[in-house]
Design a protein that fits this description.
Order of helices and strands: HHHHEEHH
InterPro entries: HTH_MarR-typ (IPR000835), MarR/SlyA-like (IPR039422), WH-like_DNA-bd_sf (IPR036388), WH_DNA-bd_sf (IPR036390)
CATH topology of one domain: Arc Repressor Mutant, subunit A
CATH superfamily of one domain: Winged helix-like DNA-binding domain superfamily/Winged helix DNA-binding domain
Number of helices: 6
Protein name: MarR family transcriptional regulator
Helix content: 40-55%
Pfam families: MarR_2
Radius of gyration: 22 Å
Largest sheet: 2 strands, antiparallel
Structural class: mainly alpha
CATH class of one domain: Mainly Alpha
Low-confidence stretches: 185-202
Mean pLDDT: 79
Number of strands: 2
Organism: Saxibacter everestensis
Strand content: 5-15%
CATH architecture of one domain: Orthogonal Bundle
Shape: globular
Strand order of the largest sheet: 1-2
Distance between the termini: 59 Å
Length: 202
């Protein structure tokens, strides 16, 4: 029996078949998937080395990322960031305090509330595990010219917007506006690029 056109399995699983001219775009997305796989594997190694579950490690990352801006994180803020209940947050905090990764202090503006802080020992542990990898990643980014950096930033911002948007929002081929180097990306308010001050190499 001859298969109907509608029954045929597409030759490309992840992306719709396109004309040959679109193949380089697929190669870009495949390279992005390779990076995503490498990043996920790195995070799993970090979780194992620090003997933490995924939620505890995510909590630690949120708290560390908030420190440079001086933003105070309370238990309710962490629960919202992680998308977990108050009861689950209480258990998570008990684990992190017990392991020496976290300390709690009374909120000076509200003595009924608490603020969360990563301990120096936890900072040292994370730095020991990640510092060499971060230096290698930074070296790759610094080796780009400014034009290349802007191209990469705009591509990733556009891709983030495409992933976040409901499928009915925009027709295929519709792109959100590009974002200049050093400004906030669409849909990621509060996240700023910090590479604009670095020297670029050719």
């Amino acid at each position: 029996m001859v298969a109907r056109e509608s029954d045929r399995v597409p030759t490309s699983y992840w992306y719709a078949d396109r004309d040959g001219a679109a193949e380089p775009a697929v190669l870009v997305l495949r390279a992005l998937r390779r990076f995503h796989a490498a990043d996920s594997a790195m995070r799993e190694r970090l979780r194992v080395e620090m003997d933490m579950n995924e939620s505890d490690l995510r909590a630690l990352r949120h708290l560390i990322s908030a420190e440079p801006s001086g933003r105070a994180i309370a238990p309710k803020d962490l629960a919202r960031l992680l998308g977990i209940s108050s009861a689950a947050t209480a258990k998570l905090l008990a684990r992190l305090v017990g392991s020496g990764h976290l300390r709690r202090e009374v909120n000076p503006n509200d003595h009924r509330a608490q603020l969360l802080h990563v301990t120096p020992a936890a900072h040292l542990e994370v730095r020991k595990t990640l510092s060499s990898m971060h230096e290698r990643m930074l070296a790759v980014a610094e080796n780009l010219t400014r034009d290349q950096q802007e191209t990469v930033i705009n591509f990733l911002n556009l891709l983030s917007a495409a992933v976040d948007a409901p499928k009915e929002v925009a027709a295929p081929g519709t792109l959100p506006p590009t974002v200049p180097l050093g400004t906030e990306s669409p849909g990621s308010k509060g996240t700023r690029n910090d590479t604009s001050h670095r020297n670029n190499r050719r």
